[in-house]
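To make this tangible, this section ends with a sequence with its structure tokens:
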Amino acid sequence: MAKTKAFKLAELIRGIEFDIDNDEIVTTKKVKSKDRKSASQTKTSTAEFTLDTFAHASYRAARYIVAMSKGSDFHSTEIVVVHDGSSVTLTQYGTLKSTSLATFDADINGSDLRLRCTPASNASTVIKLDRTTVDA
């Protein structure tokens, strides 16, 4: 059954409340934005791979929160990348870890900026990220 625009609007309204005491909009639904992305991958190799990519003509900078786990080991870090169209500057900070589970790099490949990741172990490592981008 096709969903009408009225039905979609009703569903949207059903998931939104206004908290008058705190003057804020509250939702039980996950909100998506063109400037935000979440992803998860599991790796069992120490080979470098592309963790994330975006069109560098569309965005000038991005901030990542990366959380990794391997068994009981954990590693979390924030990464900021910025580019000039041909080269990328990356800084990593706010790192909390029981052991180092990966290293990171970034480059421009064609029309994309790539965040590259090299896991430290062949053991199964779960890598999750949240990305926020800033328009070019």
About this structure: The CA atoms of residues 76 and 118 lie 14 Å apart.
